[in-house]
Design goal:
The structure holds two protein chains of two kinds.
Chain A lengths: L1 H11 L4 E8 L4 E4 L3 H25 L8 E4 L4 E6 L3 E7 L4
Antiparallel strand pairs in A: 1-2, 1-5, 3-4, 4-5
Chain B lengths: L16 E4 L3 H7 L13 E5 H11 L9 H6 L4 E6 L9 E4 L2 H8 L28 H8 L89 H9 L1 H23 L6 H5 L17 E7 L7 E8 L10 E8 L12 E7 L8 E4 L4 E6 L6 E6 L4 E5 L12 E3 L2 E2 L12 E4 L15 E4 L11 E3 L23 E4 L18 E6 L3 E6 L2 E3 L5 E3 L2 E6 L5 E6 L6 E6 L2 E6 L8 E2 L7 E6 L6 E6 L4 E5 L9 E3 L7 E6 L7 E5 L1 E7 L3 E9 L2 E10 L17 H18 L2
Parallel strand pairs in B: 9-13
Antiparallel strand pairs in B: 1-4, 2-3, 3-4, 5-36, 6-7, 7-8, 8-9, 10-11, 11-12, 12-14, 15-16, 16-17, 18-19, 19-20, 20-23, 21-22, 24-25, 25-26, 26-27, 28-29, 29-30, 30-31, 32-33, 34-35, 35-36
Classes of the chains: A alpha+beta, B alpha+beta.
Amino acid sequence: MAEVEETLKRIQGQKGVQGIIIVNSEGIPVKTTLDNSSTVQYAGLIHQLVMKARSTVRDIDPQNDLTFLRVRSKKNEIMIAPDKDYFLIVIQNPSD
Amino acid sequence: MAPKRPKSGRSSHPDEIFPLVLTSATQELFGCRTDEDVTRESPYKLLKKDNIIQDIKTRAAVSDFSPVKQIVLDYPEEEMLLVFDRSFTYGQCFYLVLTPEAKDRILSPPEPETPEAFESEVSKTPQPKLWISLGSEQEIDEESVTETREKLCYKFSRVRRKFGVPVCFSDRNTAAAKDSYLECASYQDSRFSIKQMQRDCGTQAVPRLQSSSAQTQWYKNICTQYYPRELHEEDIDSTVQAESLTNLFNSVTPRVLQALQQEEIMNVFLDDCKALGTLAETDDWSGKVSEDLVLHYAFTNQKYTKDKKISSINWHPTIFGKVSSVIAVALTDKKKVQLDESSASIGIVFYSFSDPSNPQLLLECPCDLSAFEFNPSNPNIIVGGCVTGQVFIFSSDRDDNKENNTPAACYCAVSALQSSRKDPITDVQWLPQTFEVQGSLSGRQQNVDQKTPITPDSVPATFKHLDQTWKPLLRVRQCLGFAIQNSRLNHDFKCTTNFTLKFCNVVLFLFFCRQDGEIVYTDWKLEKDESGRLHSAKPLSCFRTHQGLVNTIQRSPFFKDIILTSGGWNFAIWKEGFMDGPIVMSPSSEQQYTAGCWSLSRPAVFFIGKEDGSIEVWNLLESTSEPAHIHAHITSAKITCVKPWTVSREFLASTAIYVWSVSEGIARFSFLGFVSHTKTTYFHYRLKQEPDKPVKLQHENREENMKEYSHYLTLEENVLKGLGL
């Protein structure tokens, strides 16, 4: 439990990180550092995106699997790391 | 012995050949034993005529060669050919060739005649050949469609009285009426069965899909409202405790951290060259072009930059983009410094990449500037250090001179003459402070680095007020016994924040370096000496590592306690806190190192400029004893200053004669630069480089508490005022 907290702090302490969300496999946020409305919005939208991306990768090659997804926009970058049961969303504002 | 004549009717030998039989003794004598010296493959043996004559003489009638004695004696040449005739072509197992012509003919058979090329005068049309049937007509027969029987033709007619009455046709199913047809049903014949030994089958992976929907029972939904699902409290707690969350972090964190670091270091999607708005072509190119460089720009301006030397150069910290990337260039006169009041000499010239011939802005000051810096929090404020020892403040958003096409502005403030130094200022740095424009008490602070005057004190000064009333705040006394010293200050601060109200526990450490190569590490803390005045402490340590003027001290942008110094003939890397000496010292090189700086995007890479105009790229991860890459002879003059561009972290400007931009990405490494003596030119090239192993960043989150510090400074100022300093 403390490990989790400590890791979260470490990620949060990186330069430019705006928020971290942990979402379970159904798309419901479990832990977050943003406010509730943004969290819910991110979780719902990104969950669908991750499912789509994962199914794309697996359709092309069933032995393959999605490991990391980065969405870069003009204003910031969203990094999604999927796992077996959860996935981790980090929103970063790159310093340049 | 007379040779045996062939009894059989084999073809008699031609006249040049004489069949011989040789006894084994003779064979041994002449070295032509059957199947040993002569074989089917090499049947030829050349015998010396003298040997044969000798043999004949020796053995007279017994000799095998006696029948040919006369011929041998008459033989014109020295060697005769003896041929081993395995197949007894001419009756005996050997034959002797009697004439030299035959011998030559046998030994070197003539070339076969080349057949003459037949020309056909007129190419006749090929005659049609007879048809050879290969079975294709059977296939055609099988495929063709023919009538198997004649077409049946039925004619129907009705009674005349029904002529013209509509007729109706209908269908009838034969199965409806009994016995209307006869069928022969198929049945399984038990006598005849084929067992299937092999079956083709295929498999396909089909994703499991489940679709479901929900709909209200209403006929039409006027509006819908939903809210997101959320977990209950206990669910959340149980989830968080679960081990799977730990697993998630274990598996995911390294990737995430690496991605975050990458993002933080640089923006890989930004193309700096495009962003600079490079021109398609320029016509004013100067300077050498090495194979890796491409000239892009020439900045030239006859009016302002003629005969001037660039003393310092800086990128504008925030203006970035296609139109207005700006490089500010401080110009000094090559000739001796004179205060020339008649013509306000140009201090700083701003060039933009979109318009290389006309400067965008001029900042004037009465004497030549030797160093300048942009204020990091407000890039419109520029502080410049002058050759006379005064410090000027410029504001680049003013426009005093409306007549010219080029906007120009005069300086805003200057330091007091009596409290500033007398020698040229070599470096200026901004302290990391909050900035307020209107010169209130917690105003900006600058640390002006100065060359020491003739007195043995060297004083960095901190100014607080605008406009002729600047006075130094802190004086650092260096009693080191050198008469005339020119030291170049380069401060990087580390500041801890527990301070009492009165005096500093705010600890500032400074690295000084001196012209003779000594590096001094001092505490900026004020102490009281005998007379009760405050002055700086003695230096904590000093090292003489460089043999010449130290021109660069710079903190690494990634590690807060690693410092690069370069000067003289070598460079050194220091770690703060480890004060026994440099942690890395380079071997001495042949030319002087005149400039150096860290790379902003790769932690172990730094650039050293040399006196002969080349730039060395050092990569500490690869080797510490030699540079990773040398860009040799970029310019013909020495490089005096190297500066990275913080906006994109990719460009590096080095000067004073040449200015470079370095762009490095994860996989590419570009150099951009420009040159000036009377003009500035802009180079660009790229070369591929292997990416290093990723370096972990250390983040020490020690941040100054700005407000408290400025409070402290206010207090300090008050105190010093009270003391009359």
